[in-house]
Amino acid sequence: MKKLSLLLTIIITVTVGNSQSVWNSQNSGVNNYLFDVHFINQWEGWISGNTGLILHSTDGGYSWVNQEAPANNTYYSVFFTDEFNGWATGYGGKIINTSDGGETWNMQTPGSSEFLYDIFFLDEYNGWAVGGDNGAYPSFISQREILYTNNGGQTWTHQLNESHKKPLNSVHFSSTENGYAVGESGTILHTTNGGANWMEVMSDQSYHMYDVYTTNSTTAFVIAYYLGLPHVPAIFKTTNGGETWSSQTFSEDFSLSSICFSDEMNGWAAGGQNGFSTLLKTNDGGETWEYDYPSAGDYLTKVFFTDNQTGWAVGSNGTVLSTADFLTGFEEISQNENMSVYPNPATSLISVRLNNASENNMNLNLYNMNGQSVYKVSGLNLAENQEIKISIENLTNGIYHLVLNNASNYYSEKIVVK
Question: Which of 11, 70, 255, 303 is least enclosed, having the fewest CB within 10 Å?
């Protein structure tokens, strides 16, 4: 069903804000094109990219491990509902799933042969994947589709499967009923019944729609690119469930590819152009946008925030950025009354102990001053006042950060090796 909406366009110039976040580079260890990043908390997250790449971090991105996903694919999207259950999508209708945090990946059978560009889950059971085909060789017939599962991907059904329609690039739900999907030819689809019916609320062939994020039952944002002259980015917004849309078209020569909100007021958009990385920020629910990171660098494909201070952005050439509000936490804590590390300074052996606390499933990492992990152990179950001994005799002299964390808590201490 088609229901086209009223559009109001405003052209704005982006300014450099007074409250810019401080973004730092993280070392992904790869040069791949990175398409997506998703964190379940400030510590644990995943990145997907080309050539079968899925990276995993349990320390907020200080270190990344290449997981053994099926290699013969490009994973455009990755999504986890918790530390165990996750999915990734690629070309050829591929959806892979893990139930052990990415240690092993299994192929699911969605019944599609198209490019699947995005996947989104509300919980470990209910999820949607979108994509299609641009009508290239050999079929020359464009296609768009929306897949749905209510059992974690054991089975997938088509909610939408239409020929001679341009592919969909992104899907996002605010509840089991309210969701949006966007794609090429300026397409915005909206559902109020979990995808049983999708209504086309906008179709403007002068735009490509790249990403969508809905913050509540009435408000949604769409990242777009104007195909006319000049080629400029735009952010569409609705506050009445898609009935009408306003558009902020930017005067600068760059493009945007991703949008994310940490709450109804605070959001970020990512992109770039011609050797520049661009991150925009709003703290008034998208009424105004300001530069949060205009800097020389690689194009950014995705931005993701877990709260107002903790976020990541990924892009080409293995680029990973993260906010300094989180990164500097390791540097600012010189002592933690809940954890003892001794002797400090040390020469060959250090002891680590939680004081008057017990924790399960802990990750212990030692980082050098470049943020590289030089020691790591996972799955520690620590009783109250239990002592762990770590050999450091093979480390070069210098300052290190010791981080002990799980999904709920973290403890950090600077140590000196001499």
Answer: 11
